[in-house]
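[Automated response] Your request has been received and processed.

Submitted sequence:
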Amino acid sequence: MVERILSFIKSKNLTPSQFADEIGVQRSSISHLISGRNKPSLEFIQRIVARYPEMNLQWILNGTGSMINDGGIQPDMNFTHEQVIQNTPDPETSDQGRQKRQKSADIERKPVEKIVYFFKDKTFREYYPE
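Generated structure:
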């Protein structure tokens, strides 16, 4: 995806700094993408699409189709955090979530014999609850 973003920047004859200013992100964000330190976030992609609605979202996300929309309808990328959360399955209601909670409850019922604290300096301390 970073390579496609860089191709788009080049196609617009912009420097990475100019592109950052155009989409309203810090210049360091672009630098971190180029260096591989960070990956593009959803917000970052939303900013690109908001500033450049002609960009083909499918191309930027997964490399399919052409760089520029061919007149088709662009999917709406302006959804809120609450909508994402609302449409995401709740792991606590799944069978797997219930199994994890049951295992946790089973552990909590067992008596603790010893607790061991491991420290970063490679030492440890044992604690024996009464």
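Summary generated for your ticket: Residues 84-127 form one domain. The two ends are 56 Å apart (CA to CA).
If you did not submit this request, please reply to this message.
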